[in-house]
Design goal:
619 residues, alpha/beta, MetI-like fold, Rossmann fold, 6-stranded mixed sheet, 5-stranded antiparallel sheet
Length: 619
């Protein structure tokens, strides 16, 4: 490994190799000499015959320290393994058992972290009893709280990433998400802290054995040797100094080696050396939705303890139809998509009078049938292509995971299908690209690969959440064209979420305009420019610059600020910003009738021509 070729890495590797070799070989080579009693040479100093002198029974101290290496290292590694495993499970509890139970576990961990580790170890030693087994349990459980706190912080930092959401949409179980997608991305700090914990465990065992709570006679470790040497410290200091030096060197070996190799963790995804073209496997047969409706939503609400960002959405998406969703930030567009994909986490709540996708009722909580349908028939294309993929796994393996999970394909056949899907989204050299990591792709290539991931199944609906935001104009046009081609080829419906109303108008046949968690207008694209009836829709259109825009004038903006989702508005939410607002608008919220939710939808008076200088601009 290149990381070990530095002077620090070579030194650490040499120390660790020497330590492990000593632990393995010393009892076989020098066990008899370490146990030999010589009453004629009691408490002798260093000499050619005894390099570190002898103990109270005339046994060679140096050889006893070497033989004690095996037990000292083995017990420390056992305790470290127990502490790390326990800490991982406790720290990942919110991901494994849900937020509610996870918060209780986290609270208990925070209380345990408040106690010093040595105090915990001594307390557990009293509980588990004197001896090596009790010491292993005591030190392991004393290590666990700090490791759990670190794990919890790291897991929380990436739990909301798009590739985690993609894995969950694919139906990957919680434990598999943890082992395949979470732990590889947080492995570096965990490895470093585990090696530090191993060094600390060595010291802790030495301390417990020194106090008589650890290893018991006739067995001995470095701690017992320290205790025995302390009785003759002033006349024979080497008897205590040599085992102390052994503890320090062993701790350095673990810590320095961990630092050297941690940066290489997570890049070990297996690489296929050859890819054979096979005939595409037959996709999983799914129950057809009654009629042409792929997605049916009625009265959808998404609530949080302090806000209701989505309030009573009702719409349908038919087979092969392209529907755009537009609105300012905070209007509830992305939360609507996440609710459809069953990705709203606690404390969020999703309620709906009807929420059906591909013939499955999604209101009854996660089930095997739901996960199968979402994993094979719903394709999610997220906003940021860099966070859409797990950075520690190769692109081909990530695409293949859904096919293995839901279609029962072998590892090889799933990988072959992934290569074929990359070819379908027009990635050059798909066989080579499938073996590369996400950071080796450009932004447009990552977005194409994300669309390819959605095509691993038989998508009935493609949800594209601002898929071109981070891309330049040329790549943006290519990605939109690709979505159109995929839609026409597969007859899949498209739900395109965007800030840019003109982009949606070019791609979609129907546009849903959202404001403050509601659909305020449902308008065909052909009527968008000339026949939009809601003042908010007309304001969005007016805020988009075009070739005829006078560059000497400031850009048009929508006056005021978007509604705060933490405050449920009385009447029409757009009334404070609307030039046509009346007392009726401020008193009653208009229903969505005839494709528009506005009391004054039939007014033909154009908005004021004078642009406002202050307010919330449209992206």
């Amino acid at each position: 490994m290149p990381r070990l070729r530095t002077p620090l890495g070579l030194t650490a590797a040499a120390l660790l190799t020497l330590l492990l070799a000593t632990a393995l070989l010393a009892p076989m080579l020098w066990g008899d000499r370490a146990a030999a009693v010589d009453t004629g040479n009691i408490l002798q100093g260093a000499s050619a015959a005894h390099w570190a002198g002898t103990d109270a029974l005339g046994r060679d101290v140096f050889f006893r320290v070497l033989v004690a290496t095996r037990l000292s290292v083995a017990l420390a590694l056992l305790a470290t393994g127990l502490g790390v495993l326990t800490g991982l499970l406790l720290g990942a509890a919110p991901l494994l058992v849900g937020d509610r139970a996870g918060r209780l576990v986290t609270a208990a961990v925070n209380i345990a972290v408040a106690f010093p580790g040595l105090l915990l170890a001594l307390s557990f030693a009293v509980v588990f009893g004197v001896g090596a087994t009790g010491a292993v349990l005591a030190i392991g459980f004393a290590i666990a709280p700090a490791f759990a706190r670190l794990t919890g912080t790291l897991v929380a930092s990436i739990a909301a990433r798009d590739y985690i959401a993609a894995a969950r949409i694919a139906g990957v179980g919680r434990f598999r998400v943890l082992t395949r997608h979470v732990l590889p991305n947080i492995a570096e700090p965990l490895v470093v802290n585990a090696t530090v914990a191993a060094g600390g465990a060595l010291l802790a065992f030495a301390g417990l054995s020194f106090l008589g709570l650890g290893v018991q006679a006739p067995s001995y470790d470095w701690g017992r040797l320290l205790g025995e040497g302390l009785t003759s410290l002033y006349v024979h200091p080497l008897a205590a100094l040599v085992p102390g030096v052994a503890v320090v060197l062993a701790g350095l070996a673990f810590n320095l080696t961990g630092e050297a190799v941690a940066r290489g963790i997570g890049q070990s995804t297996p690489l296929f050396t050859a890819t054979r073209r096979r005939k595409d496997p037959r996709p999983v047969a799914l129950a057809e939705t009654a009629g042409d409706v792929v997605l049916a939503v009625e009265g959808l609400r998404v609530t949080f303890p302090t806000a209701t960002p989505v309030r009573g959405l009702t719409f349908t998406v038919r087979r092969g139809e392209a529907v755009g969703v537009v609105g300012e930030s905070g209007s509830g567009k992305t939360l609507t998509a996440l609710a459809i994909a069953q990705l709203i986490e606690e404390p969020g709540r999703v309620r709906a009078e009807r929420l059906e996708f591909a013939g499955q009722d999604l209101r009854n909580g996660p089930s095997r049938a739901q996960r199968r349908v979402l994993g094979t028939s719903l394709a999610m294309v997220f906003q940021d292509p860099m966070t859409s993929f797990n950075p520690t796994q190769r692109i081909g393996r990530q695409l293949a995971e859904a096919a293995q999970q839901h279609q029962g394909l072998s590892r090889r056949r799933a990988f072959d299908r992934a290569v074929d899907r990359l070819r379908a989204v027009r990635l050059p050299a798909p066989e080579r690209r499938a073996h590369q990591f996400p950071h080796e792709f450009s932004g447009g290539m990552r977005q194409r690969a994300m669309i390819g991931m959605g095509l691993m199944g038989t998508p009935k609906l493609i949800v594209a959440d601002e898929p071109t935001t981070a891309l330049d104009v040329t790549v943006q046009r290519q990605v939109l064209a690709l979505l159109q081609d995929v839609r026409h080829t597969t007859a899949a419906a498209l739900l395109l979420i965007s800030h840019d109303i003109t982009v949606v108008g070019q791609v979609c046949e129907r546009v849903l305009v959202m404001y403050a968690g509601r659909i305020v207008e449902d308008v065909p694209t052909a009527d968008l420019s000339a026949r939009a009836r809601h003042p908010y829709t007309r304001a969005l259109l007016a805020a988009v610059p075009h070739l005829g825009t006078d560059r000497n004038l400031p850009l048009t903006v929508i006056p005021g600020r978007p509604a705060d989702p933490r405050e449920t508005p009385v009447g029409c939410a757009f009334a404070p910003r609307c030039p046509y607002a009346s007392d009726l608008c401020r008193r009653e919220d208009p229903p969505l009738e005839g494709g528009v939710a506005c009391w004054h939808a039939d007014l033909t008076v154009a908005p004021p021509a004078e642009p406002a200088r202050a307010g919330e601009p449209v992206d």
